[in-house]
Amino acid sequence: MTSDPLVVFTPSGKRGRFPAGTPVLTAARQLGVDLDSVCGGRGICSKCQITPAYGEFPKHGVHVAGDALSDWNAVEQRYDDKRGLTPGRRLGCQAQIVSDVVIDVPPESQVHRQVIRKAATDRQITMDPATRLCFVEVDEPDMHEPTGDLERLARALAAQWEIGGVTADLSLLARLQPVLRKGKWQVSVALHKGHRDAVHRILDIWPGLHEGGLYGLAIDLGSTTIAAHLTDLETGEVIASSGLMNPQIRFGEDLMSRVSYAMMNPGGDREMTEAVRAALNDLTGEIAREGGIDPALIVETVFVCNPVMHHLLMGLDPVELGQAPFALATSEAMELAAGEIGLTAVNPRARVYVLPCIAGHVGADAAAVALSEEPGKSDDLVLVVDVGTNAEILLGNTTRVLACSSPTGPAFEGAQISSGQRAAPGAIERVEIDAETKEPRFRVIGSELWSDEDGFAEATSVTGITGICGSGIIEAVAEMRMAGLLDESGLIGSAGQTGTARAIPEGRTHSYLIHDGSADGGPVITVTQGDIRAIQLAKSALYAGARLLMDEMAVERVDRVVLAGAFGAHISTKHAMVLGMIPDCPLDKVTSAGNAAGTGARIALCNTGARAEIERVVREITKVETAIEPKFQDHFVAANAIPHKSDPFPELEKVVRLPQVSFNTGGDGERGGGRRRRRRA
Amino acid sequence: MTSDPLVVFTPSGKRGRFPAGTPVLTAARQLGVDLDSVCGGRGICSKCQITPAYGEFPKHGVHVAGDALSDWNAVEQRYDDKRGLTPGRRLGCQAQIVSDVVIDVPPESQVHRQVIRKAATDRQITMDPATRLCFVEVDEPDMHEPTGDLERLARALAAQWEIGGVTADLSLLARLQPVLRKGKWQVSVALHKGHRDAVHRILDIWPGLHEGGLYGLAIDLGSTTIAAHLTDLETGEVIASSGLMNPQIRFGEDLMSRVSYAMMNPGGDREMTEAVRAALNDLTGEIAREGGIDPALIVETVFVCNPVMHHLLMGLDPVELGQAPFALATSEAMELAAGEIGLTAVNPRARVYVLPCIAGHVGADAAAVALSEEPGKSDDLVLVVDVGTNAEILLGNTTRVLACSSPTGPAFEGAQISSGQRAAPGAIERVEIDAETKEPRFRVIGSELWSDEDGFAEATSVTGITGICGSGIIEAVAEMRMAGLLDESGLIGSAGQTGTARAIPEGRTHSYLIHDGSADGGPVITVTQGDIRAIQLAKSALYAGARLLMDEMAVERVDRVVLAGAFGAHISTKHAMVLGMIPDCPLDKVTSAGNAAGTGARIALCNTGARAEIERVVREITKVETAIEPKFQDHFVAANAIPHKSDPFPELEKVVRLPQVSFNTGGDGERGGGRRRRRRA
Questions:
Q1: B357 touches chain A (CB under 8 A)
Q2: B526-547 confidence digits (pLDDT tens)
Q3: Which of A147, A177, A329 is opposite residue B150, by nearest beta carbon?
Q4: A433 partner at 20 to 30 Å CA-CA among A237, A367, A520, A619?
Q5: Residue B149 and residue A198: Cβ atoms within 8 Å?
């Protein structure tokens, strides 16, 4: 036995001796080395590529001869001819061990590869999705030993993949017989096993080797916007991102007005459920076109959303969420068939996972932020603020995590603002006001130029200057305050008081003119007194929620702040702090996590272990109910003022860029965050 | 401890000592005594009624004083006032143990009571259905300890019923919140746990104590007829039975013509699937009306059927079943939601259990016959023949069981017979022909009188004499042979040859006139040469199948024969043997099991353990494929003749009556087997 060749795998360092002639894939499996294979070693899927290393390896105590593996064979040659194999690579199922050898498993050949998240915190996602693809050879039926085709498929999966327990629904069973025969008893199956399931569910079946991939959607279903990431379930890569407005807005801008609509209108909850489900189907079709894939290859969907959106998505009347004690129909995570919630655009057998809700006002979106930002693993006391129509706020460290939600309203998303619009090309997203001249300069989405720079007019000739988005209004209000156009109470001064003709009367109050496009038939974009009040209400609610958690934690300050938001804009941390959106904190301790809820959804999509983890974490979070807490009102009222009158952080002109989702109407997706975006044909 | 009172339960004999003041129900539970309770001891469901016995019990070594139990209390008085309590009975949850006592648990207070099957074999069904009713008190929501209503319901079921693991689908969740509040946090839930499930599924929920009962349907889905039994899931009682013709008949009389229809017509399988599902919904509505219950209380359905019916019910194309190797899409038992197979007339969350198929030609109906008749537990070698459009045939004893199916065609069900009709009032069901005069007498369904008895005309004035059903044609052909009207080859003689004017020419052959109703505008009922041929083909197929199994078992004779059939007729065993439908066997060893497949369905409906058992048994049955066995053809051809020319068993005028199902069109259900039949309003 000791004369058998030694095989060392890198990077794992796993090693063992195997008889000469053992395929590398077989050795890897026996050692538990993470080496992928879809076809089960038949030389057709190419997932098991490895790189043998030759020469002296003192660390491993081996000398590897040039012929440590068997010769390049016909299967490898055929694959190389057909698809091309990177030089130096071999197919692990074909190359056999001849003598001592060191084998490197490149990242793309690992099943549980890690995907670096493109965000400030650099969190890695280890791929371990609930759905995997298996190629399998099935015994043909034998009249003298009659068994069903499904049972023979299950037997083959047990023998060739060690997968025990397989189920299939009737729609899959209806496909089974023709596909098995078309594939000449060789088929690929998409197998789903949820983290709480005892058996694997066959989601789809294809004749021969399926090479079209498997995809999942991570969806952040907000009150105002819906954002989706189309993700390759094998690589974890986001191949398209898209979003649209939540069509439920026509039933009410914020959560409570939607609950009221359901209360006042019999069947109103049903109307809203149907509206959001139709929008999700539209969004799915759109994102699949953008990603250039067949939507039937979308086999999983993960949702994060607040409790009211959660109930309306599920077809549950949200009426109990509108009144104390804010009882959820169910708080635990759910695993469903896509058809149960009317998702017809994805694979007909696609599975849906919905993260758990934390409380009646603190939803699966807050759970997703907790999964993404992991406040419970922070040594520092961290405040995580996810800004949307409802803000999800988490405060904690390794000892304890608190959560609440605060009804900020849609102002931060550009809604309920006189010239407001959602983040799309043409929207003003950044604003500066000269403290001396009181003259503004701005930038619009779709151009990197400021409005007072050369070429700005040409750069914006296509998009125009259409309105002001959430990040733009935050900067505008903060800049107005710093330039002395606003007083501490938020009142806009007159032309006489401020010394600029841009302060124009509007009824008994004043507005500040940012841009007058009327000469070219464009809009007149102003910040009105009403806009200031909307932002004041929103920022007071956000601040009060954060303060409430700090009271509960009995602290006066936090070590760091993570700003997150799904609304597709850049938040300037400086302006956020000038406005008083968040408690004071050194500006260099304020970071952005981008769309943290969406990231949490992506993590849960790519890794089933994360589903188990967040279900556990949520049970340990302390829930704080803002709606009935008198101190919330106190903090809310106290936070109304805008105390800073000059720029407190002149040296730190820092803008944290949030990853963008593009919107599928009215925009060309210029700011989209997809890595492999494809244009619509 | 030894001074605690002794409690002895009968009939179980379980005994133990409990502190004075212990409720009888509590003592029963701790001892594992089978004492029912739905309300969990709250004195409202009355399921836990017991009878204390007083006096000397030498066997148990106790003297029971008259005051061995606590006094009759207000809860019992209220119940007695409202509903009446049988004298001597107490409520087990109210009556407390005072001193030594002997407590009898009457059968109706036992959960696992036994239901005697009304059939020859006297087999008992022990009640252990998959769905049970639980009354439960749920904690109200607490904003400071937020949990979903479902999670609090699950917690209550765990605490009050020791039921761990509860799931609910979205449609149930949508009902949950209003029902909990309407019931003031006291609700009844129907909980389903299949024998392979790890968790309980909430099928329905009602405010307060649900007293409407829970019901199940046992359905024998045949090629020609569909028979259903509406069963009380608590008592096992069949409260209504009904049947109708399978509407798929318009696509083909027998299985192979339906498979051909699917092969020749794109979407043809879908048409047949929709036809049978619509018929099942009609039948469900009808049987619920007959039973006087709300169809939403039907929470379970069990199906038995042959493989082609199985696939068409499931929406699976049966094309593979029409050609060797006759591969089933799936052979194992299935548990489904009713909605998955389009059953919309039952509870929207009702569960469906389909028995396993044995082979491509031997279906779940044969499995049900095996469950009902248990040939594998017989010391004698028993032949079980279930007659339908396809005959299911089992042969076996404790050492081995063989199964096959034989394509008899629908003649035995009265179809493809010139004056044939299904068994319904007005159909001729029994025939005698005088060997001297060659004159017939007959009886029709709906009357006990023979046609030559006084009052027959009046007795049949409502139904008329409409045709001849399956049992009638079997008797007619056998009697014709015994009276010398037929020769051994099955040829009907002329008037000259037979000496009766009832032999009338019809083309180049002859018919025998049974009844001429034309004077009153009724039909002329004859047995034609074509009818004889149809019966000869059917009986030859049946006989050949049985012989094939005997060959396989290497036996020349069987010890006993069990005749079963779902087609709702009486089979005369004597006539069956004259015809040569079954191999020779002493006539007193031929018994009837009624609708054995339907009984198997009922057993699986009432007892989940039986589901596990039949799944195990089916795996051990040896399948014999008739379609490709040359010997089947040999036996078939050899069995064509009708060898007997006189009555071989004059002393044994034995008719085995099969339990009836009534048909919901054209009949008044006079012969229905329901025990508690209610008429349509």
A1: yes
A2: 999 999 999 999 999 999 999 9
A3: A329
A4: A520
A5: no
